[in-house]
């Protein structure tokens, strides 16, 4: 039996990074974007939950803060799946019959 998580429990990884990593570190988005070698807009979009976390950005956070990129990407995937589950009933696909 698989466990399922209620969609309301899924947190966008950008929101978590902002509140638990970036803000406590006391670094500005501009300074962090410069440190990461990315645009301020790209980092801001992630931290404000307007963009998904990429593997490259996850590695940047891992290198800068020590949090595993794998963990961050699993958080993003859990969030994405929870969002898809909110409109699961709109996805009209029948079970594929197995060939004999």
TL;DR?
The chain is mainly α and 100 residues long.
Relevant terms:
single chain, 100 residues, mainly alpha, 434 Repressor (Amino-terminal Domain), 0% strand, 57% helix, 5 helices
Overview of the molecule:
With 100 residues, the chain is mainly α. It is 57% helix and 0% strand. Helix 2 (29-36) packs across helix 3 and helix 4 (55-65) crosses helix 5. The protein is elongated, with a radius of gyration of 17 Å.
What is the CATH class name? Mainly Alpha
Mean pLDDT: 92
CATH fold title: 434 Repressor (Amino-terminal Domain)
Name of the CATH architecture = Orthogonal Bundle
End-to-end span in angstroms?
27 Å
**Content-based structural category:** mainly alpha
Secondary-structure element order, as H and E?
HHHHH
Low-confidence parts: none
Helix proportion = 55-70%
Radius of gyration: 17 Å
User: Shape, please?
Assistant: elongated
The major beta sheet can be summarized as: none
List the helices and strands and how they pair.
Blueprint: H1 13-25, H2 29-36, H3 40-47, H4 55-65, H5 69-85
Helix pairs in contact: 2-3, 4-5
């Amino acid at each position: 039996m698989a466990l399922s998580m209620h969609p309301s429990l899924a947190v966008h990884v950008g929101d978590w990074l902002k509140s638990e990593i970036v803000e406590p570190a006391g670094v500005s988005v501009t300074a962090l974007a410069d440190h990461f070698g990315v645009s301020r807009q790209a980092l801001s979009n992630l931290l404000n939950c307007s963009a998904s976390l990429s593997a490259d950005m996850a590695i940047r956070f891992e290198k800068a803060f020590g949090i595993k990129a794998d963990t961050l990407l699993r958080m993003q995937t859990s969030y994405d799946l929870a969002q898809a589950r909110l409109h699961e009933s709109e996805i009209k696909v029948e079970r594929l019959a197995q060939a004999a």
